[in-house]
Amino acid sequence: DIQMTQSPSTLSASVGDRVTITCRASQSISSWLAWYQQKPGKAPKLLIYKASSLESGVPSRFSGSGSGTEFTLTISSLQPDDFATYYCQQYNSLWTFGQGTKVEIK
Amino acid sequence: EVQLVESGGGLIQPGGSLRLSCVASGFTVSSNYMSWVRQAPGKGLEWVSVVYSGGSTYYADSVKGRFTISRDNSKNTLYLQMNSLRAEDTAVYYCARDNYGNNPFDFWGQGTLVTVSS
After folding, report:
1. Is A89 part of the contact surface with chain B (CB cutoff 8 Å)?
2. pLDDT tens readout for residues A28-44
């Protein structure tokens, strides 16, 4: 089974900050990686697929990069609506999620 | 408009059974890969099971042999039959669509809470 490890688990930031979240896979997953945003009491929302492709309707301040085993999600200028928990997900072999990164207000 | 609506959650004693339903609208369940994903209270997301458009099914090791995924094409509905429930199965259960096969989940339901407790 492929394991996904995110860091950090919690991130404190201010509006306007550039934020980066890292996701590592236990084996190569090529570019088969997605990022989701989840707010309390809501279902996850797909932000990025294939490591760097922006889902339709997602603001351009979100970007993804990486391949193989190392991936990053970057928010270029954090907005009030972006305080949430973010999950990476591999879909190279079935599906596995990272443990999540909570982005909280500093 | 694509919509997924789960139901069937509730309080159940350990060892009991429960069947979750997910009614889809705006697309055809049988033409997509459909998954169940769960989230224990205060915890992260865990993929549980998938049924492929061709009918193949797969399960996470944590539920293999206890849960069964199925669909009713005439009702455009996805199911999850959960048997031999344990306290650690307590979670919000979401159904989710993979539109293209072996891809991320582009649409999710609102979730249904299953609580396993005596």
Report:
1. yes
2. 999 999 999 999 999 99
CB contact under 8 A, A95 and B50: yes
- Count residue pairs from A and B with Cβ separation < 8 A: 49
Which chain A residues have a beta carbon less than 8 Å from that of B111?
Answer: 43
Contact B50 A94 (CB under 8 A): yes
pLDDT at B99: 85
| HEC letters along A8-65 | CCEEEECCCCCEEEEEEECCCCCCCEEEEEECCCCCCEEEEECCCEECCCCCCCEEEE
Asked if A46's CB is within 8 angstroms of B45's CB, the reply is no
DSSP code, position B104: -
Mean pLDDT over residues A45-49, rounded?
98
Catalogue all structural domains in chain A, each as residue range(s) with its CATH number: 4-105 (2.60.40.10)
pLDDT tier for residue B102 given thresholds of 50, 70 and 90: confident
